[in-house]
Every structure is written in structure tokens, then in C-alpha cells.
Amino acid sequence: MKVSVLVSKKDPVGQTVKKLGYGFDEVEEDVTDFTYSKGDVIVVLSRHESSSKIPTLTVHHVGNPGGTPMGGEPRQLGVAHPRLLTSIFRELRKLNLGVEVEIEATHHGPTLRGVPVIFAEVGSDETIWRNETLVNRFVESVLRGIEGVNEVDCRNVILVYGGPHYSKTAKGLALTNCISHIISKHFISELNSEVIHQSIERNITRPNTAILDSINRERREFITNLLRLNNISIEFR
Fold first, then answer.
1. pLDDT of 112 above 90
2. Global model pTM greater than 0.85
3. Which residues is 44 bridged to in the sheet?
4. Topology of 3-151 in CATH?
5. Signal peptide: which range, if any (predicted)?
């Protein structure tokens, strides 16, 4: 498996990575909507933004579960790579940098067809994006995650529906399981059957378990009926 690590010339973390001397491929476009055709899987190193400005390292799969896209296409999920995302997350957790490490819900583009894309991000403001010591440690950790991907046991692959954008459920489960798509509570009301089908099928390793996190009865029944048709084990939180 060839993993292509990618940065954007427009992205401040990408600029810091380049300044540090890494020779990763660069794209001209914004990280949320680019075209690229090298490798079997793409790992994008980029900025993470949040209103809290709390220093945070994150990983997530890509896609737009709802009708208002942020790069890519509406109601289209990218291909998830649960083993690789989990491997990178576990390596980031080992860093002793005094920052949070989170798994975010699936969001934004690009929604490339057939090629898994994982985002590994540094947040959450300009001082962190330009911090060469932190960014260097972050990059080295991501590379260790890529290198050690085949050591991760993915007998249990988890989907998460509901819960916050920073998925506490996925974060805990990732210590002993692999994490597929996460559809946060913000999209549950507009979630349709096609996106649920995509969340199951657009995976390098097919999920076998779904966690439904604090979803109301009507939407819970709709989601569980589709999951059962696809032989997905279901747990409720």
C-alpha cells in the first residue's frame, strides 16, 4: 500500500511542514477540495480551526453527510480507512505535548471516489500552526502511524452515529477497535438511506458494529432498520 502524504500551499500547517524540510507533495487548492491521483491512500496534513482555540491534534475521515457541502459534493462520503486512521490516532496519543488529541466526525471534502483520504490536523490557531517544534513532532508521529499500520488489529470496525463532533465514543473505542465513519448528531435529522449505505460500504475494511449515541426514537429506528439489513451489529449509548 502506497500512502501519499499531502499538504496545501495555501494551508499554514502545510507551509510550516515545508519550512521544516519535508518533501511531501503539495497541491495548489484548499485542502477541502483538491484533485490528486497518486497513491493508494492519501493523508493530508493541515490546520484545524475551532472557536475555543484549544491546542488540539485531530484525525478524521472525509465526507459531507448533509446537503450543505464544505468542499466536495453534498451527501457524499469519502472512502474510510479505519486501520490507518486508528494507527495514526494511537501514535498521536503517545505525544507528550500538553495538547488534546481527538477523533472528529466525518466532515468536509474532498469526496474523491475510490481513494481513501484521512486528515491529520493541528489546531487551533496561528501560533500553533506556526509552532515548528510542535508541528515537527506531529508529522513524525503521523509517519510512525503510517509505518505501523499493519500492526493494528481491525477485527472489530466501528461506525458511530450521533454524539458530538469530537467523538468521545470513538476516542475511547479506538484504543482496542478500528474507527470507520462517524456521523455526528448535527446531521442525524437529515441523514438519508443513501448516506447510511455509503458509511457502510465506503470502507477499506467493512464495519461490523455500529454505535448509536443519544439518538431519538424515530431516527434510531430508521437507522437500525438499515443497519440490520446490512448485517451490522448495533449497540446503544
1. no
2. yes
3. 6, 119
4. Aminopeptidase (3.40.630)
5. none
